Amino acid sequence: MKTSKLAVFHAKGLPFTLETVSVPALREGEILVRNEYTTLCRSDLNTFSGKRIEKTPTILGHEIVGVIEALAPGAPTQDCRGAALRVGDRVTWAIYASNPDSWMARIGIPQKAPDLFKYGHEQIKPDSTLHGGLAEYCVLRKHTPVVRIDEPISLPLMALINCSVATVAGSLRLASSVRDRNVIITGAGMLGIIACAMCRCAGAKRIIALDIDDERLATAKKFGVDFTVNLKPGGQALKEKLAEIIPGESVTVALDYSGVPDTMEALISLLGIGGVAVFIGATFPQRALQISAEQLIRNVHTIKGLHNYNEQDFIAAVEFMEQNFRRFPFENLVHDKFDLDAVNEAFDYGLKSGAHRVGVRIGRRE
Ligand SMILES: [Zn+2]
User: Fold this and answer.
1) Separation of 269 CA from ligand 1 center, angstroms?
2) 212 pLDDT exceeds 90?
3) Nearest CA to 6 among 358, 359, 360, 341?
4) Cβ–Cβ under 8 Å, residues 57 and 124
5) 318 and 93 in contact (C-beta within 8 Å)?
6) How confident is the model at residue 235 (pLDDT cuts 50, 70, 90)?
7) pTM for the full model?
8) Which residues are bridge partners to 138 per DSSP?
9) Cβ neighbours, 10 Å, residue 264
């Protein structure tokens, strides 16, 4: 019988344990994938450090790429784009599986459907063991959006697609269009950096990145940003700075990946008439924002929130990466030095180094 090694997360402060389980017999509609590479998302690090709570024991890791090992009867024979799916194909898949006929799925929010199953977030149970990236195998449930990738994109970059890149694609969808608009992006972490590149490719007029870290802002400049502003306390007021860099013009798209209340309030206060703000970063408990309803109305502002993404965003993310993986230095964002056996070191490094992403190679290094 086939077995799979997996790194089990038990609780904050406890090391991962490397265990071995039998690969279960596939049920109708399922796909068995041999994981090749997993990047550690910020939410994985937050679970490890205790900022987020997940039911344990669990397998973390949801930014995953792998190769199809087996297709059960009733498994999809085509991916989301209509390409054939066969054993040996390299694939990535959405963070979620949910019934496409649910009300939530029909209104474009499958990631909030009542039967939602999230890879890298589920408890290990006797009948449900392999559902995360930090294991040799992953069983894809029925109704998981899967995409076959044929482009020679490196594994670390492919792994980024199904959380970071897809979430950014979703935030651009909610912004309606960034073409010929001035865009502000706050938080130059992984998502913010990808957003800079994506807005550049989508025809934004001027892209302004804000952060409190000069090193991150320097990185953003390599991803299509026109101007960077350090928001450190004591710095020049943001409004004055904008008047200097885009004189006489306004910002009509604001994308917040920082999750900092002061920053989100500042964004709304400087948004031009008809502007849209999309909040993506604030996925942790925090104070309520102070927003003037009068200003919201008079300036015809729109404020939207996004958690995860839908299938359209996932496909947009794959296509963005296929078309642009050579255009920007994405490789520099992933620290590619760890294997599954060194999972504890990988998480420690991720928390201490400030690296945009830490990668974990699951199979053998070639
Ligand atoms: Zn994630």
Assistant:
1) 29
2) yes
3) 341
4) yes
5) no
6) low
7) 0.96
8) 33
9) 23
Q: How far is the CA of 41 from the centre of ligand 1 (A)?
A: 5
Taking the C-alpha atoms of residue 83 and residue 300, their distance in angstroms, rounded to an integer, is: 42
Among 110, 340, 324, CA closest to 223: 324
User: pLDDT band for position 35 (50/70/90)?
Assistant: very high
Protein residues with C-beta less than 5 angstroms from the ion ligand 1? 41, 43, 163
Beta strands in 53-166 (DSSP E): 63-71, 90-93, 96-97, 117-118, 137-140, 146-148
The reported pLDDT for the residue numbered 341 is 97
How many CA within 13 A on the CB side of residue 176? 11
The predicted structure's pLDDT at residue 122: 97
**Distance between CA atoms of residues 131 and 146, nearest Å:** 14
- Long-range contacts at 1-7 (CB < 8 A, ≥ 24 apart): 2/137, 4/129, 4/130, 4/135, 4/136, 4/137, 5/135, 5/136, 5/340, 6/59, 6/129, 6/130, 6/132, 6/134, 6/135, 6/136, 7/59, 7/60, 7/134, 7/135, 7/340, 7/343
Q: Could you give the 3-state DSSP secondary structure of residue 130? A: coil
Tokens for 186? 């706050």
Angle CA(307)–CA(312)–CA(313) in degrees, nearest 5?
Answer: 45
- What is the 45 CA–ligand 1 centroid distance (Å)? 10
Structure tokens at 43: 């939410």
User: Hunting for tokens 């690296």 — which residue is that?
Assistant: 355
**Best CA proximity match to 348, nearest among 28, 69, 40:** 40
Mean of the per-residue pLDDT values for the chain? 96
Mean pLDDT in residue range 14-23: 97
Query: Whose CA is closest to 236, among 276, 277, 266, 204?
Result: 266
Give 252 Cα–ligand 1 centroid separation in angstroms.
Answer: 27
Span 335-340, mean pLDDT?
Answer: 96
The token duo for 226 is 């026109």
Q: Given pLDDT bands bounded at 50, 70 and 90, which one contains residue 364?
A: low
Q: What distances in angstroms separate CA 258 from CA 60, 255, 282, 287, one per listed residue?
A: 23, 9, 7, 14
Ligand 1 center from residue 90 Cα (angstroms): 20
Query: Distance, CA 120 to ligand 1 centroid (Å)?
Result: 9
In this prediction, residue 236 carries a pLDDT of 66
